[in-house]
Amino acid sequence: MSTPRFATYFAPPELASKETVARQHNAIASNPIVRTMLDSFPEAAAILNSERQIVHANDKLSRLTGQALEALLGQRVGQAFGCEHAEDHPAGCGSAPACAQCGAVGAMMHTVGAGEPATTECRMTLTPQLGRRALDLQVWTTPLPLNGDNFMVFAVRDTSDEERRRVLERMFFHDVLNAAGGLRNLLRLWPNMTHDEAEALRPRLADLAGRVVEEILAQRDLAAAERGELEPSPEQVDVEPMLQELATLYGHEVVGIGKSLEVSIGEGPAVVRADPVLLRRVLANLVKNALEASGDGQLVTLGFSDVDVPAFTVHNETVMPEAVRLQVFQRSFSTKVRSGRGIGTYSARLLTERYLGGTLTFTSEEGKGTTFVVSLPPS
User: Fold this and answer.
1) Is there a contact between 40 and 58 (Cβ–Cβ < 8 Å)?
2) pLDDT above 60: residue 340
């Protein structure tokens, strides 16, 4: 007997009963060929029923998810891994709006519908209880008709470390080379400059050199943050000078050319207690993303108020497409042509939640634009 049918945003919502899952598990566990095949897989693998529930799994999947086989039985894949969207909908994994963008569910649906194997990539962010860890997975689904049931084999390889290095390297080299290239070009011109020209450009040289160092430190700290090794150093931060500094910096960057960047200070004391380096990095990532999303002549506003809680806002006039809204906090997701540049919102949420003790949320609506809000604990 299946559960009642819920409305779903993507995959069918029905779940098989515990009795059905137990029967299916026993049938597979008693089949030595299927059991041996599953155990011999070099990757983590499971047998799923037609409701996409785990009815058997190898020990590699147990290690990958941190759950024993008995606990995995009856769970869907997102629930087993701890996906942040697995409980978004009463019908569970596969039924929420974000599930329409999930590679794993898409592969399962293809195998169920077409009766043929599928392979794809899957990005998954885990729940806050699991530290918002980002997973990058390669998944394979293969139909397995057995004893009158339509099962499928689900195999998965965790490529998170490989993907993380690729993303960080591309972002690191892009940002550092931009700053280092500008520094090199100015230094090549330096010997031919007059004294007055050289003095006028001296602050620009210092800014570019500082950016090179800042980008290196930012990548070091993000790597430490993902490992859980970052140690924040909170202190009193005067908000307005920090926001004005960010506005000046990014207003003169390539990403800010042709766009306006303003600071708005609202009600309440403009002082917060936070790690100033981490807070600045969070806001810098959001400002950079807002400018990249904006067109010529558009305005980006960097704001702050302290009514109920201290809150920073970064607003731009454009609206995100639904597919972007559903994936905006995933580490490897990017709206840009070149992959590896979508880590800004992911790192901003990671630093905000895990190290600043706050929250990062956003809204994106027609006629209102897109606003990211960084809320911190009261000082």
Assistant:
1) no
2) no
